[in-house]
Write a structure and sequence with these properties.
The complex is a heterodimer.
Chain A lengths: L5 H10 L8 H18 L30 E2 L2 E2 L3 H5 L5 E2 L2 E2 L8
Chain B lengths: L1 H4 L3 H9 L5 H19 L2 E4 L1 H16 L11 E5 L26 H8 L3 E6 L33 H8 L5 E5 L6 H7 L2 E4 L20 E5 L2 H11 L22 H5 L2 E5 H4 L6 H16 L3 E5 L7 H16 L19 H12 L2 H14 L5 H22 L8 E5 L15 H5 L6 H6 L3 E5 L12 E6 L4 H15 L2
Parallel strand pairs in B: 2-3, 2-4, 7-8, 7-9
Antiparallel strand pairs in B: 1-3, 4-6, 5-6, 5-10, 9-11, 10-11
Helix pairs in contact in B: 3-4, 12-14, 12-15
Classes of the chains: A mainly alpha, B alpha/beta.
Chain lengths: 104, 488
């Protein structure tokens, strides 16, 4: 089974888009906690699951389509574009503003 | 206070109809109580005093006109802060959402409003509902109302305390692995986690989408059933919601209840990790059922002992995917993030905005889904999840002499001390040992206090009843019989 080390922790932080922890004591604690949890998971390996069909979710529903239209509740739009835009950290005119993806 | 003398919503409505008091008087007194009591227990993140009093006034006018009362008219209900109410903050207990204002009502909120409920405030929770103590909230811990040095449980600790401390008649929480039932047990109230799909998740901030379910807290089973009836139902905005007739779930019938066969899994009552007080309380409840004539059958659910390991792989996997949306580009912006490069916005926002437990589970979820580890962890857990569900389906199977409901403790211990388990995540996870199986299998489950009187010396303990899929009536009906007739 896997061991969490410094290198793997950095890799996971990068994958999860979470800034790497710089404080050595906190890094150490994070590695210890994650390792303990992964150790606990090893008990699952004793179960023979070769022929078991995975269970992905709790629902027996099949996907249903609905029309893509504004939600009307109590006779009016459930939320206006202005309300939605007001939650953007940065915007320009009516657009969501994002830092440059490709630097020049 | 009016709400001290009233036990149920139906008594409250009788009082309103008979003009013993007005809704305004009741809600006014309630806020005076909240303002004092909540300084100590910190169940609420925000309250809506003005709008609540206005709604109470409007109701009084309608009552004067002789209008019929709707199911929850004038009933003060507290809402966990991961459920969206239009134009109100919805933080999910996280710094990353601390200025996020919801732009629409969750379906459950829409339904509560239509039934006349007064939404008195938003309650505290573990950050993104990750925790079993309400201590991981970015806005401070909530305290147990019977002992302020102890936790209320979690993650819906604020909602449980609001009801337990008489600051609300009902509350909504969300339950992904026990987040309604465990705090109910620790605070001495009733908490119902419905069948997966019974209640719409639209407008509920997602933790683990295949496990999350919204449900009520209440003082009595009767009230929990009434709130559940209001919020349940198929919703076109949640494709996993299911059309299911709940019109009769509160038609309690003692005779029918006592024909129920109760299964007691030996894994749940012999299991290690249960405290002595819980063990004796649980056995007291079993004796009461036996004495009333219930047929008790000892059963085995061989795979439930793997539930915690299975759950803590599946939950972080889904949570890390769901929480990917908190990227600093949408929702609130954190003040101290350098917004020059896109990658910096992502990593700094998430590094600063997420607390320790959320970060831990996001990294764990990223790990179990990552290339090279997926099969050994996530795919394995999905197979074990099937085996756990099969355990229940076998136990309930009518053609194999199956049981009708399954009995267990809700939580392995009474409320533990604030700070006692925060440094040991695995110890905190084990709090969920009796509750996660119902989420993994998608089954309805309820926690009911074993006894009525609680104090610092006699902290609350709940037992759990797990029902068949769509078997809410069975667990509510048996629970009501216990509460009304067997609990002395």
């Amino acid at each position: 089974m896997a061991r969490i080390d410094e290198q793997l922790l950095n890799h996971l932080c990068d994958l999860a888009r979470i800034a790497r922890e710089n404080n050595p004591a906190r890094r150490e604690k994070l590695i210890t906690d994650l390792s303990k949890i992964l150790d606990y998971f090893t008990q699952l390996q004793e179960i023979d699951t070769d022929t078991v069909v995975p269970l992905a979710g709790g629902s027996s529903e099949i996907n249903v389509w609905r029309e893509d239209k504004e939600i009307i509740r109590d006779g009016k739009d459930a939320s206006t574009p202005e309300e939605l835009r007001s939650q953007f950290p940065e915007s320009q005119q009516s657009h969501l503003k994002v830092p440059p993806v490709f630097e020049q | 206070m009016i709400f001290d003398t009233i036990k149920t919503i139906s008594q409250y409505h009788s009082g309103l109809r008979e003009k013993k008091f007005t809704a305004y008087e009741a809600i006014y007194e309630l806020f005076a109580h909240i303002e004092k009591r909540d300084q100590v227990v910190h169940a609420f993140l925000r309250t809506n005093k003005e709008s609540s009093l206005q709604e109470a006034k409007d109701l009084d006018i309608r009552i004067k006109k002789g209008e019929e009362l709707r199911a929850l008219d004038g009933v003060p209900v507290a809402i966990k802060d991961n459920i969206l109410i239009h134009n109100q903050l919805a933080t999910a207990g996280s710094r990353i959402l601390d200025s996020y204002v919801a732009s629409y009502d969750a379906t459950v909120i829409q339904k509560l409003k239509k039934a006349g409920a007064i939404l008195i405030g938003k309650t505290n929770l573990d950050e993104f509902a990750m925790g079993a103590s309400t201590e991981t909230s970015a806005f401070g811990a909530t305290k147990n109302p019977y002992d302020e040095t102890k936790v209320p449980g979690g993650s819906s600790g604020g909602s449980a305390v609001a009801v337990a401390a008489n600051m609300a008649m009902g509350a909504l929480g969300s339950d992904t692995g026990g987040s309604i039932r465990q705090p109910s047990s620790l605070c001495g109230v009733v908490g119902l986690k419905p069948t997966y799909g019974a209640v719409s998740r639209y407008g509920v901030i997602s933790l683990a989408s295949s496990l999350d379910q919204v449900g009520p807290f209440a003082r009595t089973v009767q009230d929990a059933a009434r709130i559940f009836q209001v919020i349940a139902g198929k919703d076109e905005y949640d494709a996993t919601s299911h059309a299911f007739d709940v019109s009769c779930v509160s038609d309690f019938d003692t005779k029918k209840a006592r024909a129920t066969v109760i299964g007691i899994p030996k894994e749940f009552i012999e299991g290690e990790g249960m405290s002595d007080e819980v063990f004796s309380a649980i056995n007291k409840a079993i004796e009461r059922f036996k004495k009333a004539g219930y047929k008790i059958k000892y059963i085995s659910l061989p795979y439930v002992k793997y539930a915690i390991a299975c759950y803590y792989i599946i939950l972080p996997a889904e949570a890390s995917s769901n929480l990917a949306r908190y990227d600093g580009i949408r929702y609130s912006a954190l003040p101290d993030v350098d917004r020059k490069s896109l990658l910096d916005v992502y990593t700094q926002t998430r590094g600063k905005g997420f607390g320790d437990e959320v970060r831990r589970r996001t990294l764990l979820g990223t790990f179990v889904l990552s290339s090279g580890y997926y099969d050994a962890y996530y795919a394995k857990a999905q197979k074990v999840r099937r085996l756990i569900q099969n355990d229940f389906l076998d136990a309930f199977n009518p053609s194999a002499d199956g049981v009708d409901v399954i009995f267990s403790p809700t939580s392995p211990s009474t409320a533990f001390g604030l700070g006692e388990k925060t440094q040991d995540p695995l110890a905190m996870y084990l709090e969920d040992m009796y509750t996660t199986p119902a989420n993994l299998a998608g089954l309805p489950a309820i926690s009911i206090p074993v006894d009525t009187e609680h104090s610092k010396e006699h902290m609350p303990i709940g037992f759990q009843l797990i029902g068949k899929h769509w078997g809410e009536y069975d667990i509510l009906n048996v629970g009501n019989d216990y509460e009304v007739n067997l609990r002395i």
